[in-house]
TrEMBL record:
Pfam families assigned to the protein according to its UniProt record, in alphabetical order: Patched
Major place of residence: membrane
Protein name, as recorded: SSD domain-containing protein
SUPFAM superfamilies: Multidrug efflux transporter AcrB transmembrane domain
Locations listed in the record: Membrane
Segments forming a coiled coil: none
Lineage summary: Eukaryota, Metazoa, Ecdysozoa, Nematoda, Chromadorea
Transmembrane segment boundaries: 245-268, 280-303, 309-331, 352-375, 387-412, 433-458
Source species: Mesorhabditis spiculigera
Family per similarity comment: Belongs to the patched family.
Amino acid sequence: MALMGKQKLEDGRQGGDRPLLSLLTLLLVLLPLHSYYALYPLEIESDVRRGFAQRDGRSAKEFRAFAEFYKLPFEGLEIWVVLASPKKSLGKETIPVGQPLLDEILRLDAFVQNFTAPFRSGVTTFHDTSSGEDLNALLRYLAQIYPLTAIMPDVQIQHPVTKVFGHNLQTSSHFFMVNRGLPENSTLQTAQHVALWYMNKAENYEETKRLEAIELGLFQYFLKDDFSDLFSVEMFGDQVANAEMLRGTIVSVGLFMLGGALMVLFMLFMFRHLTWSSRIWMTVGAMLSPLLATLSTFSLLGWLGVRTNSIMCITPFLVLGIGVDDAFLLLHQWRRVRAEGVLRKDDALKRVFLHVGPSMAVTSLTNTLAFGIGIMNPAPQMSSFCLGTALAVLLDFIYEFAVFAPIMVMCYEERPGGNEKQEPSKWLPSWEGLVNLLFTTSGKCAVIAMAVLMYLIAGHGLRGMHPTFEPAKTFPGDSELVHALRSFEYLQTEYWPVNFVTKRVPGTWEEVAEWEKMVSSLENRDHCYGRSRTTNFLRQFYEGSFTTWELTF
């Protein structure tokens, strides 16, 4: 504490004697740090799926294994869906399944794969980020064989299993809410949604932006609802979700800016004992310190390679609240010290630092530690947000002494009569009565009982909470993506595939039996459809081919 007090005295002497020099020196020192904005554009990224998932958690490891199976990069792999849904203008709940629908679905698939979107000074195409995997080959095959259903009994397009020349084909990955009211394995007649799946890869920032341009272009085009007379088109993909999340953040930033404007008006009112020019300078100085701390934080994180995400957009407003509070403490103590008759500004500033410095240090330290603990959050976006906020709070503590204090010394000027002693407030007696009541035995018991009741209510609420993450809550209220997400959630209630990848094919009949035992145990678990919905080519091979040819391992 002695060392800190001595340093505060030195800072007070420098800021009090030569405030303009100390302020300009700080700005020159910060110039190389802030040169980041001149060299690199500030890019705000958002990742709804990976940003809130546990870093190197089970889901990440499973998705990595899935990507390795397709020999694709894990970081840039994305699977997204385009849905054909009942035509909104017709008011129907299902789509008739037939040759016209299948032809329109193939036209939709061709439109998506041939889509181009403006990108910087040129254009980008779907194939610029395509993985090369065709996830919709089954739909093209069904469109080709559909005319045969009327003349060949061996070709029956049913749901969820279509039988074609003795082979079973799963249709549950493309057709949803099928034949409502009809038994399973009946002829495919109606569907509520038909899905086209796409797998793209974006291995770097450039490819991510290209994929984002394609998805956003398709999303905006399908909002016009004029692609087909048979169905409306919806889509859900990571890049569209990220863009909508970022738009929601921008809307929130607008509300925070409104709060900042109200804060400015509040400060101008509270500084009414100062001249108008002094009010303006005090308000600017009170806001300059936290905003400069935020700029320094984002610059430092940028030099360190930490990207700015959408949640970090609220960091300036959090730091602004803390910084303005510190500015009020400094200004109030400065007014008191000056009223005591201390004429030398350096002496007055030293007294201010000695009185207010420890309080500000404790507040800043506790906030820094609180957000510092959040750095260990397994979600990457939350971890980066806590890192940025903790660093910004710490820098704001320094800038309050290095930026606001010199401005206060240079520009503080009271209007005539502004330092007169104010009369006690008419509400003071009622507050005194309340304080006296709280210090009685009954008052203390009431406070304890109220605290216990609040903890019990909070504990009951926490027990009933179920931790979950819903992407829709990150979107603006007017987002059209909410409707597509609702349709996608309907799909998930009916179709939620679980992929198992084996690194070695069974080599003996004993291993085949062990494999079959494992698959059967999975099929009989709760919420599984069973054997009929399993896509297992090994099973089809040894159940079909082994009856004719002998298997040799």
